[in-house]
Write a structure and sequence with these properties.
The protein is α+β, with helices and mostly antiparallel strands and 251 residues long. Helix content is 27%, strand content 29%.
Amino acid sequence: EAKLDLFESSLIRVGQRLGDPSEIRAMELEITGDSIDLITDSPDQDAEYDADSGRLLLKVGAEHGKRIPVTPEERAKSLEETSAYPTSDPQIIALVKRAIGSATRPKARIKRLVEFVDQFIIDDIGNEPLTVNDIIDTQRGDCTEHSQLFVTMARAAGIPAREVSGFIYGEAVDASFGGHAWCEIEVDGYWHSVDPTWGETMINATHIRISGDRPSTGEMDLYLGGLEFRVLSIRGRNGEVRQLEPRRRAR
C-alpha cells in the first residue's frame, strides 16, 4: 500500500483522455513547475525552456529525440556488476542463455531480452524493494523490478544498460501521467530506450524522461506534485495528429 500511495500522489492529471499510449508516436506538451530544468534532451525527447514564460516545451517521440553518444565512462559504468546488478550470478547467466537463445545480432538479442523480461515478470505493485534474486524467485514486480532485471541481464550479456525514470501516460486512474521506470541501452554507440515492462523495443511517445538511474532527493519533488502538464498535440500510429490545446504565448 505504501508504494501504491506514492504512485497515487505522483499522478499528474491532464484534462483529456489521450487513448492507448502504445498507439502514440509523437506528443507535444507544455510543462510548468519547480525544477523543470531537470527535464532535458534524451534519445526520445527534445526539451526547449522558455525563460520568459517559465515554461518548458517538450516534444516527445523518436522523431524528436536526440542522438546521444555513449561516453567511455558511461559504457564502463553501464557494464559494472554491483549488488543491485549481480551479472555473474548463476541464475542470471542461465536466464540470459534462456532469453537470448541462438540470436547473435545485437538488435535481435536486445529484442529477445525485452520480450523475455516483459513475459517473465507478472505485473504487481509490492511494498518492499526486491533483490534480483527475489525478482527471479517470485516472478512478480512493477516497472522497477522489470527494469532492474533487464539491466542485470543486459549487462551480463555484454550490453551496456542503465535504468532511467520519469513519467508515462495511463488511464487506470483518470487521464494522468504517473511515475515510471524504463531502460536505456547502447546501440551502435548511442543510447536507445526500451521498456521491458511494456515489452517495447521502441518506446511509445508518452514516456517523459527525468533522470538516469533512480531519482535523487531533488528529483523526487517532481514526482510529488511539483509539475503541471498541458498536452498540446499527439500523433497516432496512423499519422493522424490531434490538436488538444493551443500553445500559450510567452509573456
